[in-house]
Amino acid sequence: xxxxxxxxxxxxxxxxxxxxxxSRVPSSNFFYLRKPGSLRQPISxxxxxEWEDTxxxxxxxxxxxxxxxxxxxxxxxxxxxxxxxxxxPLPESAIFARKIAGASxxxxxxxxxxxxxxxxxxxxxxxxxxxxxxxxxxxxxxPAKSGKSTLLRALSGRLRNSxxxxxxxxxxxxxxxxxxGSYGFVERETTLIGSLTVREFLYYSALLQLPGFFCQxxxxxxxxxxxxxxxxxxxxxxxxxxxxxxxxxxxxRRVSIARELVMxxxxxFIDEPLYHxxxxxxxxxxxxxxxxxxxxxxxxxxxxxxxxxxxxxxxxICLLSNGNTLFFGETLACLQHFSNAGFPxxxxxxxxxxxxxxxxxxxxxxxxxxxxWQDDHGDFSSVNMDTAVAIRTxxxxxxxxVDASAVETMIxxxxxxxxxxxxxxxxxxxxxxxxxxxxxxxxxxxxxxxYFWLRLVLCMLFTLCxxxxxxxxxxxxxxxxxxxxxxxxxxxxxxxLSIAGVPAHLKEIKIYACExxxxxxxxxxxxxxxxxxxxxxxxxxxxxxxxxxxxxxGLRDEFSLLMYFVLNFFTCLLVNEGLTLVVAxxxxxxxxxxxxxxxxxxxxxxxxxxxxxxxxxxxxxxxYPLSYIAFHTYAIQGLLENEYIGASFAVGQxxxxxxxxxxxxxxxxxxxSNSKWxxxxxxxxxxxxxxxxxxxxxxFRVRKNVSTCRFFxxxxxxxDAR
Length: 722
Prior knowledge:
The protein has helices at residues 2-18, 75-82, 148-156, 198-209, 218-227, 249-261, 279-293, 308-311, 331-340, 351-359, 363-370, 387-399, 402-416, 430-447, 449-469, 480-497, 502-517, 523-553, 559-587, 590-606, 626-629, 631-644, 659-663, 675-700, 708-721; strands at 57-60, 67-70, 105-115, 120-132, 137-141, 163-171, 183-186, 267-270, 298-303, 316-321, 324-330, 620-621, 624-625, 648-651, 655-658. It is α/β, with parallel strands linked by helices. Residues 1-26 are annotated as: Disordered. It is a multi-pass membrane protein.
């Protein structure tokens, strides 16, 4: 305790000297506390009045759908609302006729452990207590790896499989999971569809999430656009087009939040809303969220640090360090808490910077590096505090403070009486989701030139090159071997060109993972929608390439044979598309997916029976199983049987041989006239098999969150054991 007291006194003296009247520079650019009417002179925390605890009356209306919080005019809130903290004025359009019924959420003795090598031992969040009220913004702040995102996920019921939660979470005074549509969760990094406009993106999201007719969802989309101040960007492409730039990072972040607002959630969880935003975009984001909170929605989000203006918009702050709660309460009371612990905020330093400076252990390395350095004003007086001592001091001070007692009293009041239960708002049917995803994928594919249009051009150019190289073969016996080579090159290398679609497939998988985490989509719905949307484009590629190749090579001039050629090549593309999705789902990385696909295609080409007859291939590996799982084998064999079964070639002037006999030395085929349909059936079954494999990978390889029912059942068992 003597060490803590000495460190606290040392830092108090340095901070006091930094904020003394002699060292103050009256400037409107440096401030964090202002008295009403004094817009020019900054004041230190020592000049601010004393704080008093006030009770908050919780009133639950019978038959209502929200908890009304009546808050008396406390010194902290009155100063925040009257301009003690500088906050930009809300625009006139911030007032909405449509209100959102918020919900209170309370967490009590919340502990989250992460599974180590053998057991759940690492505590990420330790006995945290707090609450969030309708119409307010509650921020979870702390340095990196302090447990902010874990606490947010625990409250929303979205912990990973490797995490386990202990404690209690109440929603409107009831220990209950959050049903679908009652809350929204925005990840730190979300995947948006760049080829859609903001309005289109939100409209398709509404169609995927909400039940009912299409026309009823347009008003919901417009409300979301208006709520997030996206009216000027509603008709702009998210990712840009040609020489047009896409949306800035701030607007992209607001679009990801607007996607969750189409459900009109009672509670909105946001992980790092200011992630990768500059100061202006961050301020605009927080003003927009403040405007959203004014409609009644309960906002809970994490943040690393903020400017003074942004800090002034928060209602309550939960300060974490190494999983420990160092403070929970109103934002201005946090400044008082640091001052009481011996760490007052210097006059020209942002409160959030000061908090992180005091509790971030990474600053100890800076102190060790700079302990012998001097700046223009002498020693580094602002970094002369032991962080571990500061954390212990702040934690001990908070546990014995009136702020902690006020939180416990508020938790008892919010959990004493059960409020209205949150109900699920229903989901769109599976048929509707499949139709929406199919139409959306068609629109994306038609606009994204790298998806299918590039492949179409490449396939047509490559087919034109192959056709001109192998043109003029004639129909003599000597042309058989050369025509086999042409068909092998056509099937093998056009399939290899499909690797160009890997980046587009990876985008689709990321979009699926994002929508699946919020229960907007499913593996089966995604696969069927993607398949139905890709069929027209794959058919276009197969028809255009087949026609060019068929007539340049000079294959048999019969319509039925031409239709089989197109159908065979189309099924081959379907198989290749499924294989690409399988590899992309496994790696979820462009480099490794492309490298793996190239290796697979090379192995399949080697075992397809062209370089060496299948009957002559070595038995282990090359014959079994490679030659049987290579789709090249069945595609080439079917095309050759289509061309040569039923044909004959003259040998001299008297004798003739069948096409099967002419081809026997160049490629293994069956003499049966119906064997080509068997090869086509095998290709079709392979296409189905790859899709089933993709379905399994999407369900188990792409990480999913733990279901909320199982999550809260674990809590109930833990509480009963206690």
